[in-house]
Amino acid sequence: MQLDPAEMTSVIHRLRRAQGQIGGVLKMLESGADCVDVVTQLSAASKALDRAGFAIIATGLERCILEGDEAAGIDRERLQKLFLSLA
């Protein structure tokens, strides 16, 4: 399944935020920040990455429902494995 960049705008924004959060975590670690603050930022970045992954999978599921598996170019078993890899 090819991803349409126009459909992925919100995912791209979410990943850019996560990228910034990870950069912030690196700076925090380099400056000796408090561990609670570091873990809080890591948690936020992790959630952003998970949500981005689920949003991509949701796009595939939506295509399956609207177009059918073959027309959408989606292998159900592969999509299920992708979904479970995020769980």
How would you characterize the overall build of this protein?
By secondary structure, the chain is an all-alpha fold. The chain has a single domain (9-86), classed as Metal-sensitive repressor, helix protomer (Methane Monooxygenase Hydroxylase, Chain G, domain 1, Up-down Bundle), CATH 1.20.58.1000. The protein has four helices and no strands. The protein has helices at residues 9-31, 35-67, 69-72, 76-86. Helix 1 (9-31) packs antiparallel against helix 2 and helix 2 runs antiparallel to helix 4 (76-86). The two termini are 21 Å apart. The model has no long low-confidence stretch (mean pLDDT 84).
Please describe the topology of this protein.
Elements: H1 9-31, H2 35-67, H3 69-72, H4 76-86
Helix pairs in contact: 1-2, 2-4
Number of strands: 0
Biggest sheet architecture:
none
Give me the CATH superfamily. Answer: Metal-sensitive repressor, helix protomer
CATH hierarchy: architecture: Up-down Bundle
Give keywords.
87 residues, single chain, Methane Monooxygenase Hydroxylase, Chain G, domain 1, mainly alpha, 4 helices
Question: TL;DR?
Answer:
The protein is mostly helical and 87 residues long. It has helices at 9-31, 35-67, 69-72, 76-86.
